[in-house]
Amino acid sequence: MSPSFGDTKTEENKLNPFHFSKCSVAEITEFLTNISQTQSGLACLQNQIVQDKSVVDIRGDMPGQLNQPDELCKQYFGDESYMCRGPNFPIQEICRSLFCSKPGDSQRCVQVNSVRGTSCGNKKVGTPNFVKTYLNA
Q: pLDDT for 46-98, tens place per residue?
């Protein structure tokens, strides 16, 4: 059971490139239902996370500010992937989506969703619904 990247964007999946089969969704739902019916399972699901002081707090940062587009492509397709560049891939477009090379297919760049806060111009970042000014970009 694992997610896969969807090539078709719909209103339902435009912000999430992963999709699970109906069978996987049913298995996950059954697992969560079963575990929530036991005392220890319910306690586990309701546990509060204790913040470890050695972990850097990045709650104020937007995900797109933490990684450059090439790194995002690597997260999608592996270490050999990179952001496609050139006249067919205008930099302004990465506010909402970017094109990544697909390892093993040197002629193919695949469109993927950008993450919130991806820099896409002078002090501009993309969010799911609009482009906004962000002084740290």
A: 888 777 777 776 667 788 888 888 999 999 899 999 999 888 887 778 888 88
Give residues with Cβ within 8 angstroms of 44, minimum separation 6: 35
Q: Residue 33: enclosing H or E segment and its boundaries?
A: helix 22-35
Domain shared by 102 and 129, yes or no: yes
> Domain of 73?
63-133
Structural domain count, the chain: 2
Give domain status of residue 100, yes or no: yes
Assess if residue 88 is contained within a domain: yes
Answer whether 0.70 is exceeded by the pTM. no
Going by C-alpha positions, the residue among 109, 96, 98 that lies closest to residue 72 is 98
Same domain as 71, residue 13: no
